[in-house]
Design goal:
alpha+beta, 12 helices, 375 residues, 13% strand
Length: 375
């Protein structure tokens, strides 16, 4: 039986005994590194499963059930299990092994959840919205600027389970960074939760900085010489993308504040100090998004005002030219009534005189409108 088949059974069986049996079979082959930015190369939702003791990674491909039982028996270390978009069947055995609440399991599998932190008995369940800036050569009315995903985290005294949804937000670099700092990792699962929160919030700041560059470009285009002809669809698109970013950042403020201030059993008071730093960065991102929203509203209003001014200028030009044309039209209308007795009708110089009067009147009107800025 292949190792890929073994892993599928680990994430698909509902009984602990089945988990133990399949995990033993997995040990018959050399360990395969499952760190992957998306799904496991073996086709399973399992990205990685590692045991840590005193902040140090325990080498070898250990049996998941044995590792959990050993940690529970000795009271030392914890297990970090990483998943990517698991199905109900794949998550069933894991939920039973770690005694996860059905409501939290449903949220973790279904995704599309609002950022939150909930406690189910001795387990803490946190939901983070991840964001990623989508590179583009030129901002258009259909450009995708912000891509979102989700990371769900189950935190217990002896385990951390991360469930990731979306095409980005890989925790591989985060895991490597934590392993390079054993002193911090030795503080337990709460340290992993803090690292994930800090990583997510740092991405918020990076995305807001990139979005600011797009907003600055839109602002420059709108207030340029031909700003009235700028595409307003770009402004609406930026507001829609900013709304996606706002949905990820704003609801997270209250949960992070709870993690930083409220006593929670699985979060050590020493770790809460780190969450206060995360909260500070989160509030900075929140304030930036609020400022961007107001700025985009101002840019949109300014653009609409520019369009109105441009239309008024066009109307003034049309009106001025209509007034200029009205003079010869009036004269021609008078002398086109075909009366027998009209002044200068049969005079030799009547035609040149009328043409000269019309030209002089039109030129005077043109100069007057030109001087007043209407033409």
């Amino acid at each position: 039986m292949s190792m890929a088949g073994n892993l599928r059974k680990v994430t698909g069986l509902g009984r602990v005994g089945g988990l133990r049996k399949v995990a033993r079979l997995a040990r018959r082959r050399p360990r395969v590194d499952l760190s992957h930015p998306a799904r496991s190369p073996l086709g399973s939702s399992v990205v990685n499963c590692v045991t840590y003791q005193d902040g140090v990674r325990v080498p070898g491909c250990a049996d998941l059930v044995d590792a959990v039982e050993k940690v529970r028996k000795t009271g030392e270390g914890f297990v970090w299990l990483g998943l990517h978009e698991p199905t109900d069947r794949e998550f069933a055995g894991i939920a039973e092994l770690f005694d996860l609440h059905p409501l939290a399991v449903e949220d973790a599998v279904e995704a599309h959840q609002r950022p939150k932190v909930e406690r189910y008995g001795e387990t803490l369940f946190a939901v983070f919205k991840t964001v990623c800036y989508v590179e583009h050569e030129k901002l258009t009315a259909t450009s995708e600027v912000v891509d979102t995903g989700e990371i769900m985290v189950f935190v217990g005294e002896e385990f951390v389970i991360t469930v990731r949804h979306g095409r980005h937000g890989s925790l591989g670099p985060l895991r490597e960074g934590l392993e390079a700092d054993p002193q911090q990792l030795a503080k337990g699962p709460a340290a992993v939760l803090h690292a994930i929160a800090d990583h997510v919030v740092d991405d918020y700041l990076n995305v807001t900085d990139a979005v600011q560059a797009d907003i600055d470009q839109v602002e420059t285009d709108v207030f340029s010489e031909n700003g009235a002809r700028a595409d307003p669809g770009r402004i609406y698109q930026m507001k829609r993308e900013l709304l996606e970013l706002k949905r990820a950042v704003v609801p997270l403020a209250r949960p992070v504040e709870d993690l930083a201030t409220r006593p929670i059993r699985v979060v050590d008071p020493e770790i809460q100090a780190y969450f206060r730093d995360v909260l500070d960065h989160l509030m900075r991102a929140k304030d930036q998004i609020a400022a961007f929203d107001e700025l985009l509203n101002s840019i949109l209003q300014a653009h609409l005002a520019q369009v109105t001014v441009a239309q008024n200028e066009d109307m003034r030009k049309i009106t001025a030219w209509a007034a200029v044309i009205a003079v010869p039209t009036m004269v021609c209308g008078v002398y086109g009534m075909n009366f027998d007795h009209m002044p200068e009708l049969h005079w030799r110089f009547g035609y040149p005189l009328v043409m000269s009067v019309m030209a002089a009147a039109c030129f005077a009107l043109y100069r007057g409108f030109r001087r007043n800025g209407w033409l």
